[in-house]
């Protein structure tokens, strides 16, 4: 064979000595190519009747073996070269079959942008041919070969992130090096994974792509550009960051979500949000009941009022015939099986509520506004209408009963009409922009509309039509949501996933999928705002399908209570409802315990839960999560108020507790601050817990003894702990080699919230092998402020080698414990400001008994 030819990857050229100076790969054969070098093969370009990638004439990667990676790449190669070598070795062919060519053209329009065009062409070709495989072709090894080529691209990226301190953003070419945008390369890899996951191949993905999977330096620039776009468009920062908090990859999905906004700024520009922050929006605190009622006519002075008598409504409710009004007369309709009615979902901020004025009241509406909704109902072939402005009684007890069952009106409706002034001014396009506009709208931010969306089977959205009184009606499922990640832009798919996570059932998917965990509940509830904060707990109970009757005498007294007694009862109901929901939805993510809020109790049952559950952080969930895996990695809540699950743990040395070394998370309340300070005075009882090697912040707890947890008929030994709070640790992030050592962290089952009146104990009595002390080489002084010199001390529980000592002292910069998602120059709020994450971060590979690296 020619010495200048690599059988895996084509032409090979000598590498400059200065690039390989000191490199142990000086004599290793590897690909040396231009950034424009073709990664596709042209072996079957003459074939037009069959897919060139369906031909089984190559060594197939049809198993889970990592052997191709071991043969093709090496850790000393630049990542770009390693990826190029892998792509070439996969022997993906340029295909001329007409169906594959058409699919490739369609996918090329929606695939993420990447300046490395050769890699993008490889990705689009592989995905297009994979999508067009016939049923018979999918049984061939060639199909699984493409699947595994995608999986190995992901595995290569994951391994390189673990093995290198900083992933090189370059590809070595004839001029030495060519910079490539690794953020866009990573997006293409992720795009391939979402497609395979949607096709039922998600089980092949061997590491969660969470918010901390990519280090901040790779995505900082793209996130920064997205924030600039949001600033220019005047997008509400509060809405935006509430969305970010529940997206699978958090801010990493932000550039994709705002893709359409950058392309069509005129469509998405918002006004009045210049003073918004990630935590606040002035519109959230407006008393929307004081908004003037909307007119749908050019001459409001000529528009009369229409009165829907409340007495008739209340009589119908008491008879059990419902609170729906007839479209044909001002009379309550008799709702029977088969009766078609539409429910209105709207925001009072738009003026579609009761309004103000001397005649404003329940059941009193502008005729032009009523006619507008009746015409929509007629177009949808509905004979009745449910609208809270005219469908809620005034009798206090009856009204409370109707509010407790209000969501059932949306569940039973033929369809829900979504009215939002921002969307009504948006011209329809087929490119996914309407879907993105929905998640950025005011309607999507409100608590009650979230409940209405959750309960609705069929949603009809109103957009700008030929005339203000003739809006365009589009079906959410049929017309708006993306059907597949391979046929939609990233913005469209991200927005679709956000919306779909809030659906109980749809017309096309009639099976009931109630909220099954606290993770799902918080993802719906936490980003939403309400005018009256007490409503948020009511909505939480309705989302959780709690029965309205509790049997609690104090809860029943709320209807008649006044003044201070009413405030006391509201606090009781908040605590009682939180406990009921936590028992009813008995799984919760680790991240939800990482808050800085006052807890339901100081110790004992539910002492780890925030007084209001909607103040607890959201554990991210999304495209690549497996439902069974999510359940197994969550904490289990028992009937006694304990939260049990697996945690990584370590102890505290005296130096670890130096002033400012461990501090409550930002914005922690005074109770949490004092609790943390008191706990650190008894460090022997303290234990630091974290879900994964890279998850932040930490949970500080105090050991109280051993116990047993019974779950699914299995009895497990657990360490019982008292909840203290979420803390920030200003130590270094240990070196990669060190974090792989099983002795550095232990893993055990902990139960939090079953401490009762028990006294704390020395944690080493329960966990003799617990590590106390660790490396310390932070650029930050105690307290985390910049400009300090904390790195001169090194503490360890085990001897350090001289090599590792020198590495820590001389190359400590960048190795201190810094949140991977800390974009100091991008104005990104912290986990505590929006939500938290339970991601494992960068995956630490391990080898199974079969030899495959996970």
Automatic annotation (TrEMBL):
Compositional bias annotation for Acidic residues: 819-835
InterPro entries: Znf_C2H2_type
Ranges for region Disordered: 811-854
Superkingdom of origin organism: Eukaryota
Record domain C2H2-type: where: 552-572
Identification of the protein by name: Het domain containing protein
Species whose genome carries this gene: Grosmannia clavigera (strain kw1407 / UAMH 11150) (Blue stain fungus)
Lineage: Eukaryota, Fungi, Dikarya, Ascomycota, Pezizomycotina
